[in-house]
Design a protein that fits this description.
Shape: globular
Strand content: under 5%
Radius of gyration: 11 Å
Mean pLDDT: 95
Length: 71
């Protein structure tokens, strides 16, 4: 669908959880599949730039700011 985002990975723990949670949230909010996938990909990309799992999951605002800077 979409190419991944290039980031400097620090810790990959929790990246899948970040994707799954934010993807599910975007779908349940009524976003199109493509938008939800891209939102989840951005969340996962941002999450690996910080150490830890739950603490590294970005907020919706952080994800939207990141997406704005990438597109």
């Amino acid at each position: 669908m979409f190419p991944g985002f290039h980031v400097h990975a620090v810790d990959t723990i929790g990246a899948g959880n970040a994707f799954n949670g934010t993807f599910a949230d975007a779908i349940s909010a009524g976003n199109l599949l493509e938008e939800a996938v891209q939102f989840g990909q951005a969340a996962a990309a941002l999450s690996v730039t910080k150490p830890g799992a739950a603490k590294a999951i970005p907020s919706a605002g952080e994800i939207n700011t990141f997406l704005s800077s990438q597109l």
